[in-house]
Amino acid sequence: MDGGGHIAPPALAWYNSLTRVNYSHVAGEKARRNIGKMSAIAPVAAVETASSRLPVRIATAIKPFERDLFSIRWTGNCEADPLVLTENGEDFDLDDLIWKNPEILLACWSTPRLPKVWLESADCALRYVCYLAGSVRRTVPRSFIEKGGLVTNWGGMAAPQVAEHTLLLTLSILRRQSEWRGFIQQPTNTRHLTPLQTRTLFGCRVGLHGFGAVARSLVALLRPFQVNISAFSEGVPPDHMREYGVTPSSSLAELFSGSDVVFECEALTARSAGSVSAAILAELPDGGVFVNVGRGPLVDEAALLAEVKSGRLFAALDVSTNEPFTPDMEFFTTDNILISPHIAGPTNDRLTACGEFARENVARYLRKEPLHAQVTLEIYDRST
To answer: Fold match between 28-154+350-382 and 158-339?
Structure first.
């Protein structure tokens, strides 16, 4: 504490040195009764004089495994508001969060959807949701941003690793990686390379469905393979694609018919759901490769299975409509499909950098500086 009774800001650590307030004794029903009665809790609005400023309340709504994955630490000084951090345990209680009424919320995959009845109440103190991962749509209602609430995520930090994984899947399916073990198990005097039917990415016609950060990162990775790249994404200006040396396609059908390999990296919206229909898949030439690192519901998966089972197409999938993947799923048991368990995002060693990115954004908020990777309404609407 400083001389004014406030929590001194220097040398803070998210989960070690920072003062914590334990509200675990607060019952859920009591928390519900506090909606509309939050004026009894000390307000967190900033005032002009730092010495008279009340602590800014930060609450976490993440699972311990997420906290560990992102390795969030605060090791430097914070020349801003004094802070009080409250962290949840394994069992998360929305009522408890409402009772705490934080100004800043640290959220991630496991965070439940924030209730509009709380967010729209006059005494709700929440001003900033710092989301550690990517899409915020399942957690944060659009109305929160409409009313001036701030939301950030990891921005473009995941895109290079997703693009890297996409390239891995593509090369693996072209080189028939799933067949290698069986080939090696054959007697050496009977092995022949012909049945493997390996192929190269060099010189292929490549199509990108979607032109967000992942697609743009993928363009750079594909260049050394001397491929011809086309793209289609509704709402993206053709000149923006041309800036990256990419040829715009006039329709999704044109994109598929003119590609040997199609990368699915479009955002999932009401408009894009199911856009890769049976008719669109039929446009891919024989031997075509479909790689999905976007979202499963973008695709008619029954039609995709039929095409692959017929031997006409190959597929590599990091996502599916029904996740997680299980060994009894048809995708898992069908030849010519390569599966990865939705791991195209940042690798474990990069998640630490994402945690540092979030930590810096909170520090910027406290210093009243512009936030990085802010989720605007436009970004929200185009997100998965």
So the answer is: yes
Query: Would you tell me how many other CB atoms lie within 10 Å of the CB of residue 319?
Result: 22
Is there a contact between 179 and 336 (Cβ–Cβ < 8 Å)?
A: no
φ, ψ of residue 128 to 5 degrees: the values are -145, 125
Strands (E), the chain: 56-61, 83-86, 104-107, 128-131, 150-152, 205-209, 228-232, 247-248, 261-264, 289-292, 314-317, 337-339
pTM reported for the whole predicted model = 0.79
SS3 78: coil
CA-CA distance, 346 to 139, in Å (whole number)? 20
**Can you tell me the distance from the alpha carbon of 133 to that of 100, in angstroms, rounded to the nearest whole number?**
23
Q: How far is CA 273 from CA 248, 266, 294, 297, 321, in A?
A: 21, 10, 11, 6, 11
Is residue 124 within 8 Å of residue 154, measured between CB atoms? Answer: no
Instruction: Tell me the pLDDT band of 333, cut-offs 50, 70 and 90.
Output: confident
Q: What percent of the chain has pLDDT over 90?
A: 66
Is the N-terminal amide bond of 324 cis, ω within 30° of 0? yes
pLDDT at 88 over 80: no
If you search the block for the tokens 């991630």, which residue do you land on?
108
**Six-digit token string for 91:** 């069992």
Question: Per the CATH hierarchy, to which homologous superfamily does domain 28-154+350-382 belong?
Answer: NAD(P)-binding Rossmann-like Domain (3.40.50.720)
- Neighbour count for residue 73 (Cβ, 10 Å): 16
Question: Using H for helix, E for strand and C for coil, what is the string for 95-121?
Answer: HHHHHHCCCEEEECCCCCCCCHHHHCC
In this structure, is the dihedral angle defined by the CA atoms of residues 40, 89, 158 and 231, taken in order, positive or negative? negative
Superfamily the domain 158-339 falls into:
NAD(P)-binding Rossmann-like Domain (3.40.50.720)
